[in-house]
Write a structure and sequence with these properties.
The protein has about 260 residues and is an all-alpha fold. It has a single domain (about 15-245), classed as Glycosyltransferase. It has 9 helices and 2 strands, in the order βααβααααααα. A two-stranded antiparallel sheet has the order 1-2. Helix 3 (about 75-95) runs antiparallel to helix 4, helix 4 (about 95-115) packs across helix 6 and helix 5 (about 125-140) runs parallel beside helix 7. The longest helix is centred in the first third of the chain and has 21 residues, at about 35-55. The radius of gyration is 18 Å and the shape is globular.
């Protein structure tokens, strides 16, 4: 990551959330490897990281702390959301139900927390980032949620509140957007169409959700290309992620079996 505690160092912060994002990338690489030896090497790396977190930072509540973070040592929305996502993706790849339990427990904790009450980088300060990272876990977990179960119903209600938030905060849908798309937190708006595309396959009014995502991506594209050839920014990266889901639904979360 080039910040915090680096490999071999014994001091400094080390973050579950950030490293879980890297682990998801390594897992995605493993799923696309043609050579069995390469695939196994990457899978072993992700499994070792997941074991480290599950042995040390997953709490009985279902929430997950951010590892060695000097500012806060409790369960945190970002580490719970991103590692919860990784847990579901590992379950999809391996069939190991220990990962499924971690993922479902993470959803339960996030539902009880409520994204609008996020703290330690709070919702008021960083709402687009809170929504993008919290709902990573829900997007990855949708195939494994019984929407008629108590957890499924609570999750659907929680997702519904996030979609309402998007309706009044996405620049394509309001006259004056309250967020700067080029800022640290506002750039995460580029990743929200991804969630809308995923939920459009599971929730009512899927066609409308997909249409909202299309409109938002068009708006983001105009912003990105308005000054000519764009630089590689966070907004560009997150928008590419959303666009990949648009043109190849399910490809982001593919496994080695498909």
């Amino acid at each position: 990551m080039h910040y915090g505690r680096k490999p071999g160092e014994l001091k400094g912060d080390w973050f579950v959330a950030d490293c879980a994002s890297i682990a998801i990338g390594v897992l995605a690489t493993a799923a696309r490897c043609d050579q069995p030896a390469d695939r196994q090497r990457y899978m072993d790396s992700v499994a070792a990281y997941a074991k480290l977190v599950m042995d040390n930072y997953v709490r009985p509540s279902g929430g997950i702390t951010d590892g060695l973070w000097s500012q806060f040592d409790g369960e945190w929305w970002c580490s719970t959301g991103i590692f919860g996502s990784l847990a579901f993706l590992l379950y999809a790849e391996t069939g190991n139900k220990d990962y499924l339990k971690v993922g479902l427990d993470a959803l339960d904790w996030l539902n009880r927390m409520d994204f609008r009450k996020a703290e330690h980088i709070g919702f008021k300060e960083a709402a687009p980032a809170v929504v993008m990272y919290v709902f990573e876990a829900f997007s990855a977990g949708m195939p494994y949620l019984d929407l008629k179960s108590p957890l499924g119903q609570a999750s659907q209600a929680h997702i519904g509140e996030a979609l309402k938030w998007m309706s009044v905060n996405q620049g394509s849908r309001v006259a004056v957007c309250p967020w700067d798309y080029s800022s640290q937190w506002g750039s995460k708006l580029g990743g929200l169409p991804f969630h809308q595309y995923v939920y459009s396959r599971y929730l009512p009014d899927g066609a409308a959700l997909s249409a909202f995502a299309d409109r938002e991506l068009e708006y983001i594209g105009r912003r990105i290309f308005s000054a000519g050839e764009p630089k590689l920014t966070q907004l560009v990266c997150f928008a590419m992620f959303s666009y990949a889901e648009k043109i190849s639904p399910g490809a982001i979360y593919r496994t080695s079996k498909r």
